[in-house]
Amino acid sequence: MREHEMIDTVVIGGGQAGLSMGYHLARKGVQFTILDAHERIGDSWRQRWDSLRLFSPARFDGLNGMPFPAHPDAFPSKDQMADYLEAYAARFSLPVRTGVRVERVSRTGDGSFLVSAGNRQIQARQVVVAMADFQRPRIPAFAAELDGSIVQFHSSAYRNLGQLRPGAALIVGLGNSGAEIAREAVRGGHETYISGAASGEIPFRIEGRLARLVLARLLFRGVFYRVLRLDTPFGRKAYAQTDGKATPLIRVKSRDLDADGVARVARTVGVRDGLPVLENGRTLAVTNVIWSTGYDAGFSWIDVPVFDGQGKPVHTRGICAAEPGLCFVGLHFLYAMSSSMIHGVGRDAEHLADWIARRPRETRAPSVPSSVAAVA
Asked: So where are the chain's domains?
């Protein structure tokens, strides 16, 4: 038997975007709930590889109302970030329902939305999809042709070197994740290849003194937040150059890979005799392949016509004019380069919360939780 309830606003996703959305909705007095598929708040971070650290220093890793509890120049681990998100939800008494995987969002006959999750159905005036547009790991079809003895998986499933067989490892994709995993593999004693070309790299060390004192603030609060926005010529150009493309190398540089002995090879294009083949015809005899090949948006469960021919939601600052009440937050360049970054998602969430609160509604929403009102 299905459970059915009515809630003014449903936020789908309980990561930094969803929690930030909840914080601002609560301050506006909107009735809402946050649905998250993970069993525990912060698990999307906990489930990433063990040695992962953020690229942004702690001074830029806090959400509205609660600074990140670490030295401002420290680079938090993925577990510290996960614990912070859990503490943030608790501090502001945000109504997060964990272990709830949304299977479908559709329109009802009266124009509201129906959110289906297992035996639950929630009817809502507004739905906010608070998820990044890289949800479904992308692996080339020819991966299925690799010899069955080769250990292979997407980088999203990588935790540590204990998952690899003895022998050589091929990392397919020279982005940030691929570079960090490759460096870890070669230092762990694996002959390591990394396939493909980098999309450039930032010209300084993010952990260096100059970056800590000047460059980090200039980039995160200046360029990414104020300059590279969709309402500026520079921002529109940056969006066109980064849309669907890998980001430049940030922490690990090409010279670091060379110094560690990671062999950089051509793009992987297929399989021959069960082994990966490069575009120059070379075959690599490896026992491990990690596909650091990016993600697809993974929004096929949204059964509402708001997507363009490339499967991207059509919106203005997260608001879908063609389907009033459906919003997005946390997407790449939703409004600015910072939109998918921890320090920038709050501005977008506040904008959407203001818009939602101004929409006509039939019933009076509950009062703002005191924990949120206290920091307003």
From this structure: 3-135+297-373, 138-201+248-291
